[in-house]
Amino acid sequence: MYLCMITVALLSEMHYNSTESLETIRQNIHTTNTLLSSLTPITLSDPLKAFTFHGIKYQLGQWIDVKDTINQWLEAQVIGLRANQVCVHYNGWGSQWDEWLDNGSPRIALFRSHTLQYSTSRYLCPSPNIPPDAETTEIPLYRSNLKQLLVQHMGILDKLRKMMGQFLLLEEKGKKEQLAAQLAPLVDRAGRMLTEFGPHLMHMALPQAIKDDGAENPEESNGVEGSLQVPLIANSGDVALVTNLLDRVLFGNTPTLELHVHLSLIHICAADDMQYVELGGR
Fold first, then answer.
1. Per-residue pLDDT tens over the stretch 216-268
2. Which of 140, 142, 153 lies closest to 201, judged by CA?
3. Does pTM surpass 0.90?
4. Kind of pairing between the strands at 99-102 and 63-67
5. Lateral strand order in the sheet of 85-90
6. Which residue among 3, 39, 115, 141 is the one 20 to 30 A from 49 at the CA level?
């Protein structure tokens, strides 16, 4: 009982890092725009292709997926550019593993094309599991602000609106499936970015509701009355942080507290030729 109350109290004070979050959004806007520029024309070609990745313009600092020399897809970052080649650094690996690859190499892919994000990530947008740690001063320090990113995201949403309108009108089999294959990753990424904008806007409206760990000079404000809670549910990354904090508070440095999730089982039962759902669990 007391443990549950402590957990709720800790989760009730939400935190986010505006600098880190804005960089996550900026990276995903760049990736999404690359997808939009790589759309294959909607034709009944054989085989049907959703995207054609030729001549992608990578930028310094861009997050990407790279297949290493033993055929494992890893998180990486672009740390160098020259004519038709990119230098990549594998996150978490020493600089001796950095290598130059051709721009069109099948070993390079857009971020999260092959790698998987940890369920404990603090972001819904694709973000690195291992923080980029390249030993270089070549990567520029991008300082995107919320207004710039919102304008860029609105441009993406406008293009998706037109694509979805086209999808609703298409009847020809094959073409509809091709457009659906294009829309799926674009809508997924665009929706995730919208969710990431929420805490920034909420912090602007009600700073005391969501603490910005990335602000150098926190602004004082009474906030706007009647604001609804954002986010609606704590993400798994926040829950994991709370679990680790409780470990330290209650049991010292020895990890003894485990987070258990009990799933409800759904039974379909027949009664008088009718079906009803019976929920159970613990």
1. 666 666 666 655 666 665 665 555 555 555 455 555 555 554 544 444 444 44
2. 153
3. no
4. unpaired
5. 99-102, 85-90, 73-82, 63-67, 108-110
6. 115
